[in-house]
Design goal:
two-stranded antiparallel ribbon, 32% helix, 90 residues, alpha/beta
Length: 90
């Protein structure tokens, strides 16, 4: 890796991410009782952990308000969760 790229990488302090299709496979799973489930990829959790160990915080910005996302956010020790955000560009 050249020195220009290394300098740019060292400037990264924050990762903003959505959930569906980014931290999950984008599917919505429903049980016969109507429970909604999401499948998070374990490697994404490891990625959040590795970023944190290198001083890079992760913030989730999602339009959903879902207890499943809230539980994953807490378990992964993500810096902040902004849920119910309809205009993510703002």
């Amino acid at each position: 890796m050249n020195s220009k790229i290394k300098k740019k990488i060292k400037k990264i302090k924050l990762l903003l991410t959505d959930v569906d299709g980014v931290l999950t496979d984008g599917g919505m799973y429903y049980s016969s009782k109507g429970d909604i489930m999401k499948k998070f990829f374990v490697r994404d959790g490891m990625g959040v952990t590795l970023l944190r160990k290198h001083g890079i915080d992760t913030i989730i910005v999602t339009k959903e308000k879902n207890p499943i996302i809230n539980e994953w956010y807490k378990k992964m020790n993500v810096k902040k969760l902004y849920d119910g955000i309809l205009d993510k560009g703002k």
